[in-house]
Write a structure and sequence with these properties.
With 689 residues, the chain is α/β, with parallel strands linked by helices. The chain has 26 helices and 22 strands. It is 48% helix and 17% strand. Strand 12, helix 21 and strand 13 form a beta-alpha-beta unit. Helix 12 runs antiparallel to helix 13 and helix 16 runs antiparallel to helix 17.
Length: 689
């Protein structure tokens, strides 16, 4: 074929390849930086469009509707009957009207956390809508959506959905977290190996009925293309299909192109399809590991040798990616993959296809899922082999990647030494180079404070989102804020966790924190234990009471607990006086005016910074207490739109009367105090800028 010959000549030219790569880079950068403006206004109340995504759980349904542009909405069910009715009547492709209140997606108010706004913007979603009413205007008539609806209704098992259509949304968050911590999360989506299994199965069938090789490949290409249209188009799926297409064309049509050329073509096409793929962890895992396996594994090795090499290479190549996105690596993942790679690719993926075709087998399939989830969750609790690294500038992760490829290509000792020295310095850096700090974390309506110095850390309270509406479930603050933040700072364990008192918004996350992060000792306040505190004591070791005037040393910080036992819970809240050579801070928990009066009588409390008691409620922060403590700055940890209307105007007026400047976590996000620099950093202000 003349066209194939011309293509072969063009692609065999290194100059042409460089031009393709350069143009792809330029186009990608331009597309990533094109400013986007929504076609909707924030005061828009009604949206009419095509329903393109439905994700329902027990208490709500999340919809994506394409009108003038895509918009994501959430509707909370009032009754079980309503939930069933909506699930039965709404189908993909329907034209619907949604009525509600628009809002912009929120950016993180704490450094180093997942940016949900950017995540949605990559999908060209610029507004969220809290839906009050859903009206179905017109039934779907599109064949495409009819097929998708049949698939959605037929595929209800979370893992069959993940393996066959690339949607992992319904896999439990606990299981997904365990896969991430064990270094095996790349296996639980439609990956390259699974596409090759599917494609080779189809090619074998066509060969059995005497279809010629080239014709067979054309038929499989068409089937896979139609399949791609119906499933989630993630970076790993696009990469997998492109690799199969390009490598197969090269082999069957004898283009004689080397692996590097084929990889560059695949990479360029992927980024031309969607430039935002380059910002996703799936893109980096998929391409880096696949390229490494293509370039550095031999095809003539035994299965066991190939498996061991694959597992080792996958871990080695994923180090910079795991460190950049998750701040952690698990060296035991090399061992884990020896089991999970064959279990997923040889057993679970084929079983997913068979169960899809024969649903009666689902009880047996679910046994495999129980084995998978139970073993992964158990293994994720093993702390040996897990190493936490602080976040550093992105250039260093790219250097890690270059060094790793140099090691694999040359096997030279000097590159191995450079990598080891780099990782060791990166690992120990927080202990020696991180400045002392107090960090008041934005946990919405609650309290959580980190104190760090010289590799030692204390956490005062965990936060714990209060659910104002019984129908609305809260997400885990510890899972999505506290633990990622700790890891990004290079904090490997908590020496102390102090729970100031037994309220949900101060200690509601302790159970999750204890089960997912290393804690040396937990301290409860004095006074009668509430039910939530009894649950903590029952399930957790190393729990003690913190006594009045008990002292704790955290590096350069000295902490004193000043409060006594009272009958009322908030009045009994632990109060910590934190002393540093450059600064003193008073952390009031939810202590009341009665507590303040007691402290005034018994202690001299001149302080630089005060964390205001009880989120700025008028039950705390009396005028006399402010006069007695004379702080240079007050900080209020409080949630936006809280039903208590904290902080109260009375407290704010008292602060203004005493000419005490104040910051709130509503306006400033997470607030960090650096005593040695006498500097305050506001994460939300930084992000907004």
């Amino acid at each position: 074929m003349p066209s194939m010959k011309r293509l072969k000549i063009i692609l065999q030219s290194k100059k042409n390849l460089c031009i393709i790569l350069l143009l792809t880079g330029i186009i990608t950068i331009i597309r990533l930086n094109i400013p986007h403006q929504s076609k909707y206004q924030e005061d828009t109340k009604n949206i009419i469009g095509t329903l393109i995504s439905i994700q329902a759980d027990e208490n709500k349904v999340t919809l994506i509707v394409k009108g003038k542009e895509k918009i994501q909405g959430t509707y909370y069910f009032n009754t079980e009957k309503e939930r069933k009715k909506i699930q039965e009547t709404l189908n993909l492709g329907d034209t619907i009207k949604i009525i509600g209140t628009l809002s912009l997606p929120r950016e993180p108010t704490t450094e180093n956390l997942f940016n949900y706004k950017k995540y949605l913007n990559k999908q060209k979603i610029y507004y969220l809508i809290e839906i009050d009413k859903i009206i179905k205007e017109k039934e779907n008539t599109s064949l495409y959506y009819k097929i998708k609806n049949k698939l959605e209704k037929k595929i209800t098992n979370p893992y069959i959905k993940a393996f066959l259509i690339g949607n992992q949304d319904t896999i439990s968050s606990e299981a997904k977290t365990s896969y991430q911590e064990n270094g095996i999360s790349h296996l639980f989506a439609m990956s390259g190996m699974q596409f090759y299994l599917l494609a080779n199965f189809l090619l074998s069938l066509l060969k059995l009925i005497n279809i010629k090789e080239k014709t067979g490949y054309k038929i499989v290409f068409l089937i896979l293309f139609c399949y791609l249209i119906l499933i989630e188009k993630t970076a790993s799926i696009i990469r997998s299909i492109l690799f199969f297409f390009i490598f197969s064309i090269n082999k069957v049509w004898n283009l004689s192109l080397n692996k590097t050329t084929l990889i560059i073509l695949s990479l360029s096409i992927t980024l031309l399809i969607n430039p935002f793929y380059i910002t996703e962890v799936a893109f980096w895992y998929s391409y880096v590991i696949s390229i490494g396996l293509l370039l550095f594994t031999k095809e003539d090795q035994s299965y066991l040798k190939t498996l061991l090499k694959t597992s080792s290479l996958a871990f080695f190549l994923s180090i910079p990616i795991s460190l950049y996105y998750f701040y952690e690596i698990n060296i035991l993942s090399i061992i884990y993959n020896l089991f999970y790679i064959p279990f997923v690719n040889i057993i679970l993926f084929p079983a997913s296809m068979i169960t899809f075709l024969c649903p009666i087998l689902e009880p047996i399939y679910n046994i495999l899922i129980v084995i998978l989830e139970t073993s992964s969750i158990y293994l994720s609790k093993i702390t040996f082999g897990k190493f936490i690294f602080a976040k550093i500038p992105i250039i260093f992760y790219l250097l890690y990647l270059i060094i790793i490829f140099r090691i694999l290509k040359t096997n030279k000792k000097k590159w191995k030494i450079i990598l080891i020295i780099g990782l060791v310095l990166h690992y120990i850096a927080p202990t020696y180079y991180t400045k002392d700090f107090i960090k008041i974390i934005d946990v919405s309506q609650g309290d959580s404070i980190i104190i760090y110095s010289k590799g030692h850390t204390a956490l005062i309270d965990t936060g714990g989102k209060i659910i104002y509406d019984e129908n609305k479930k809260s997400t885990s603050i510890t899972q999505y804020i506290t633990i990622p933040l700790l890891k990004s700072l290079g904090i490997k364990k908590l020496d102390y966790v102090f729970l100031t008192h037994g309220d949900q918004d101060h200690m509601g996350e302790i159970d999750y924190l204890y089960n997912h992060f290393k804690i040396e000792k937990i301290y409860l306040n004095l006074g009668e234990e509430k039910e939530i505190e009894k649950e903590v004591i029952k399930g957790i070791k190393n729990v003690e009471k913190v006594y009045q005037e008990e002292m704790f040393q955290i590096g350069n910080f000295t902490m004193y607990q000043l409060n006594k036992e009272w009958k009322e819970e908030n009045t009994s809240s632990s109060v910590f006086y934190v002393s540093h050579k450059k600064l003193n801070a008073l952390l009031m928990g939810d202590a009341t005016i009665d507590t303040e009066n007691y402290l005034q009588k018994n202690y001299k409390l001149k302080t630089d910074i005060i964390k205001i008691g009880h989120h700025g409620s008028d039950t705390s922060t009396s005028l006399s207490f402010l006069k007695a403590t004379s702080p240079r700055l007050a900080i209020i940890s409080v949630g936006e739109d809280n039903i208590y209307h904290h902080p109260s105007n009375e407290v704010l007026n008292r602060l203004k009367k005493e000419k005490i400047p104040f910051l709130t976590t509503i306006e400033s996000g997470t607030i960090t105090i650096f005593p040695e620099k006498e500097e305050i950093k506001e994460d939300k202000t930084k992000i907004d800028n």
